Amino acid sequence: MRRYGKYIKPYLFSFICGPILMIVEVLGEIFLPKMMALIINNGVATKDIGYITRMGMMMVGLAVLMALGGIGGAYFGAKASIGFAADLRKDAFAHVQKFSFANIDKFSTGSLVTRLTNDVTQVQSLINMMLRMMLRAPGMLIGAVIMAFTINPSLAMIILMIIPILVLVVFVVLRIGFPRFKNLQSKIDGLNSSIRESLTNVRVIKSFVRGDFEQEKFERSNGDLKDASLRAFKVVITTMPLMSLAMNATTIAVVWNGGKQIIAGSMEVGDLTAFITYVTQILFSLMMTSMVILQSSRAVASARRINEILDEKPDVEDETASLPDKKVESGSIEFKNVSFRYYKHSDEPVLDGINLKINSGETVGIIGSTGSGKSSLVALIPRLYDTDAGDVFVDGVNVKDYSLKNLRDGVAMVLQKNVLFSGSIAENLLWGDENSTEEEMKHAAELAQANGFVTSFADGYETDLGQGGVNVSGGQKQRLCIARALLKKPKILILDDSTSAVDTATERVIRANLKEVMGDATKIIIAQRISSIIEADKIVVLDDGKIVGLGNHEELMKDCEAYREIYYSQADKEVGA
Ligand SMILES: Nc1ncnc2c1ncn2[C@@H]1O[C@H](COP(=O)(O)OP(=O)(O)OP(=O)(O)O)[C@@H](O)[C@H]1O
Ligand SMILES: [Mg+2]
What we know:
The protein is of the alpha/beta class and about 575 residues long. It folds into two domains: about 1-310, Up-down Bundle (ABC transporter transmembrane region fold); about 335-575, P-loop containing nucleotide triphosphate hydrolases (Rossmann fold, 3-Layer(aba) Sandwich). It is built from 19 helices and twelve strands. It has helices at about 5-10, 10-45, 50-95, 100-105, 110-135, 135-150, 155-200, 200-205, 210-265, 270-310, 375-380, 405-410, 425-430, 440-445, 450-455, 475-485, 505-515, 555-560, 560-575; strands at about 335-340, 350-360, 365-370, 390-395, 395-400, 410-415, 425, 465, 490-495, 520-525, 540-545, 545-550. The strands form three sheets. The protein has a six-stranded mixed sheet with strand order 6-9-10-3-11-12. The protein has a four-stranded antiparallel sheet with strand order 2-1-4-5, with no helix packed on it. Helix 2 (about 10-45) packs antiparallel against helix 10 (about 270-310) and helix 9 packs antiparallel against helix 10 (about 270-310). The longest helix has about 55 residues, at about 210-265. The mean pLDDT is about 90. Bound molecules: adenosine-5'-triphosphate (ATP) and magnesium ion. Magnesium ion (MG) binds near residues 375, 416, 496 and 497.
């Protein structure tokens, strides 16, 4: 909880003023009934209009003060809690931005969204409530008890007897309510994950006609949330009438006893009215306290979930980089005894004992069956993941010694699961380098064989892409992604299965363009088709996380059984390609 101090600091003034102004309101609440009693006892009983007017004016003044205090308190409470939440959300979001792929794999995206929105809001409501109630509830309780005693000690004993019963009720409510509210928060998480998954994948769901299934899944989590909410709010619902019952019983006891005292002449009528108001206030303050504590049960669960994000150490960091100013210059790559796993507790490595040297300017093909570790291997170069053992060097320097920015500026990677963003085509391409000119952008698009179809669109480069690039074909999307990477003018260009949806003729042109323009950059091409990499200087054959062949096409055809197998399995299909 210490970390939250930093979010209080900028709003310290509001954090202090909010509760203090609330005291003004409490003082009013405590003294108004007493003044009312005085009017009834001294003014009404003796028909003293002057006294009634004077007292009445004072009461109006006090009421205005109370209103001002209430407004001010609410204002500062809102200001403090909203500011606190906004800063917390900002930091959490910034922290999530630093997450590596491995960190993100750990939390689901749905859960991250819930934590940054709903959970932060829970904490915000708690702070707002606390600032307004923190001093008000206990102040009102203590004030009302004291006033009750000064008016009539013997009658006040009745209140003292009822308080332990009320405290017990509150305690029971909390015991039952706390876990239920905590449960509620996790159900919201479940619902968010389910909604997110179905909405982002709505196309796949429709094409597989899995709508009903998804609907069912949604209804299940929605039903879960409904049940959890009902269970939680049942507690609140039963508390209110119970409290009312206790209050009414106390009032009757007070009126009955007080009435007897009035008849006996030992108590005045005005005191009895004031007394009843104090009973209500005592009860109200206990109710407020229980509400705050119930809300805090949700907020504590939420704060814990936010903490999990803030405590998550980004596992790819560059704070310890020993050469933060070094840039990638030539683009040579070396893997030394590298092994890698996605889950630190699994014993089956995805990559095992990889030793590989790639000279700058070389074109390297990587081929191997699906799941053999091709994507994982190249992900280690721009440090999307870190190795378990062994090291990766770029320009002879350990990748961990670069700043992430410089490393990733030098390495452009077209991911296998590439995405485009909503926005115009130009905006998407300029991700590669926002400072490049229109000429450069078009040139990059031409190299990636994208210029043709882009200019055929009515709006050309200003064509708006839907979310994820839904309004271009698979092959067009791949070409735009390649253009985006080319615009970075990287020293190392990695294409992970990036032309799989492009026809072989166009692919051949792209390859030729790359060779010509990106001559001195190192190019790594992962492909399923041998034809995509047949001209590479070096071909790496991966099988089950190990390198089983290394050489050019002719050498591998001679020496590598696995490569020959792939070649022959594709040869009959590829005739004429
Ligand atoms: N994010 C991930 N979390 C956990 N395991 C993963 C992850 N990505 C890949 N794997 C596992 O690592 C292994 C290698 O996957 P990788 O993506 O490197 O294969 P690939 O050779 O690129 O396959 P493909 O040709 O299908 O793209 C597979 O067994 C896969 O299940
Ligand atoms: Mg892959």
